[in-house]
Model the fold of this input.
Amino acid sequence: MAKILIVDDMASMRKMVAFTLESSGHEVVQADDGDVALAIANEQDGFALVITDVNMPNMDGITLTGELRKLPALKFTPILLLTTEAGKDKKMAGKAAGATGWLVKPFDPDKLLMTIKKVLR
Amino acid sequence: MESVTSLSAAEHQYLTFILSGEEYGVDILTVQELRGWENTTPIPNAPSFVLGVINLRGVIVPIVDLRSRFGLDRIDYGPTTVVIIVKVEANGKERVLGIVVDAVSEVYDINKGDVQPPPDMEGSISIDFVTGLATMEEKMVILLDITKLVNEGIISSQANDSSKAEVAA
Amino acid sequence: MSIDLDQFKQIFFEESFEGLDTMESGLLSMNDGGTDLDVVNDIFRAAHSIKGGSATFGFSALASFTHIMEGLLDEMREGKREADSDVVNILLESVDEMRTLMTAYQDDEEPDVEQMQVLQKKLEKVCGMEPSAPSAAKEEGNEAGEAGEEDNRRLGWQIEFEPHDDLLTTGNDPSLLLSELRDLGDVTLTMDDSALPSFDSMNPEQCYLKWSIKLLEKDSDSVVEEDQITEIFEWVEDECDLQIKGIYPDREKSDRRAGDRREGGAQEDRRANNRRTDSRRPSDKKPTQQATNIRVDTNRIDELIDMVGELVITQSMLGQLGDEFDMSKLVRLREGLEELERNSREIQEAVMRVRMQPISFAFNRFPRMVHDLSQKLGKKVRLELTGEETEMDKTVMEKINDPLVHLVRNSMDHGLEGPEERLAGCKEEEGYVRLKAFHQGGSIVVEVSDDGRGLDREKLFNIAVNKGVIQETDVLTDEQVFMLLFAAGFSTAEKLSDISGRGVGLDVVRRNIESLGGNVSVNSVFGEGTVFTIRLPLTLAVLDGQLLQVDGATYVLPLGSIIESLQMDADAISGLAGDTMVYRLRDEYIPIVSLSNLFATDAGDNEDMAGKLLVIVEWADKHIGLRVDELLSQQQVVIKSLETNYERVTGLSGATILGDGTVSLILDVSSLMDMASKAMECVNKPKLAVANGRRVGE
Done:
């Protein structure tokens, strides 16, 4: 039972992830862009995990990761990037910004939950 | 008043009302409701029998003084003055109108066989609008074709014409 | 656990269709020249999102097709590819294909993969790309890895794990990673803390520990492959030193031998897992509901909530009254009931307002249509849209779609000339089709105009005579002749054009619009252009109005028509021949119109006007002044139809219901001007001079 921040500009994906996590008993907060997520992270605390898409209009997921890492409360919090790209460079860029790991699309709910278990303390 | 369920096929229910001592009847299926008199908002340049419009639950409804329409003297409105709100069909759509009468009388089941055709009456009401005469309880009731009266005798003809761009033939 | 994803599919379809619209309008804007990098990024992102979503929901054909487009767009946004018109056109076709595929998925039908592949080849050809193999879903990230060459007798793995200093700062936790190993088999941990400094100099954000892990397979059925281990450490690959060696009985060497691939149960499971999303075919799902939706401005919802709140208060007040009722409370009861009526009416109107949508929804299809048609016809046409924010009822808007499409096609096909003809006629090479929407009184007006050939009155007349629609001796105004276009069976086209048919359409257009309670008319200047005007009743219209009083009656004047209001100065009033009075305001002589006279409410003589209120209104650049008794409040009023139950009244555009429940009439400025000018018939010429602002006599 953890508080998780989901960031994705695509409503269908975001809601699906939120639904999956809530069905498992977690508390989910949604944001539809990186800048919105950053604002939420500044206002709320207690996040055990952040899951964010990479491609978003105002602030992309990698920039968001970098910004979140600057916040003391989120310095060591797991941040996972949702990516469709198999390529190494996006993953490297994510890691360089401080991301914990990634989830590759398409994923199914079970895989998502398995991955979450890996990072939640 | 008899209930609708006891009507036989040839019978029609009519609501009758009084206008200057005469009793008239309209098909009860056209009657939507009865209201007391209330002030109307006059319409500019309207015929004198169109008293104006009222707000009927958010819909603008014209009120017509039937006495005036029939060329009878106007009277002051009093506690028995009733406005009969009728709903008639016009060109595939429906119109709602109010007609001011002296008082409401009865609801009668009138058998078609008891209705006599209107005589060649001289007077204010064109026989176009009268479907016939009936005798109820020794009184004569003049049955009105309210649909025709509204569409041809109250609403002006160009309002009923839907095509706007006509080529002069 | 199985989670039903179907509920999210509808959202996916909605946002994806919007995404396709974004791509289309972005691509169309690129055609006009400048390539804005932001636009390309938007297009890329839309495609990227659709690709991701369609892969997740198992729409593999769409996913793989979009993937190719995405690759193209990626090159474009990195400046590696030029966006020339061929590329843009093929991308537009691809967007259409994506729409088709998405619609198939939405309708639970098999997508036409063949058609898709045809377009795919075209796409690859135009863009000079390597043709890709006919697509199955690309299993991205399915790093099933190579089958490990294994030795049947491997007992387990020896793992050396040394995190770098910064592993913790990416949010990874060694203890969690180590716990995962426990899921694979029996784990024996040996921790090495030799690098751990003394407490005072220790940085808690740094990792000083390292581990030796012995992972033994539990039994011969639970083989652990190497890539299962690397997968656990996948994220921290670059943030640690990791060594993995197999443990073999009685062997010093850790070489692996090539061997038959074992049916590793775990590996198969994982692969099957990854494929699950792809195996759901549309055919075995429940049919999706095709409900239509409306986007609603949340302000309108808030309004509704407020009104319902008021309703609740009224209801509770009435309830209280009813509890212990006696005749002394009769007045309050009546007031409460009036309040109730007002509340209900307001809610009804607010709900109707929710159905009002901006006409941009109907206009949105035209940029693409004009673009495609202009290419097909070889004409240069630009589209101008005005008044897209004008609101109308959603159902009415849906029904006006086809007539608008027909009129625009008409303009482009028959109205507008080709580039050479235009230049020869001293026009600019590029012509325009203009769609303009605005409110006028109780109607919404949509104009479709072009600067093309215009209508040839002579020709129309003669064709009509030949067809027997009119007689040669008939005398018709220009407008009447133009309206012949709408007559049944009338056609001016010499040959059938597959674009707009043979004039049968205009007849249908007219009938469609009249069935909505509206009308259509046409006007034209030969050689210069044509304008079609569609007029539709607004189911619900709201007007900003100025309430005023004349002879004790309250009227509403559209605020937008008021230029100014003033108290008349005796010196500025003068009379023209007859009963007409005019008011001199700065350089203009404005006819004074008395509503009392026009409406025959009080046919008094021209009483002394000095000091009375004059409201100067404007219509089509003409001015008149209305003499009123008093100006009341300004408020937003709902336009109610007089025609529904009564008839159209000259001088009025409708009625409204005021806060107290009484009916107030709404003035129609254009009609008032007509009435006033008829009344001043005898002074025609000077009136015109006055109305146009020139001094009398000039």
Observations:
- Confidence is low (pLDDT under 50) at residues 134-151, 251-290, 494-504, 682-698 of chain C.
- Chain C touches chain A through 43 residues (CB under 8 Å).
- Chain C has five domains: 6-126, 156-248, 299-354, 358-537, 541-691.
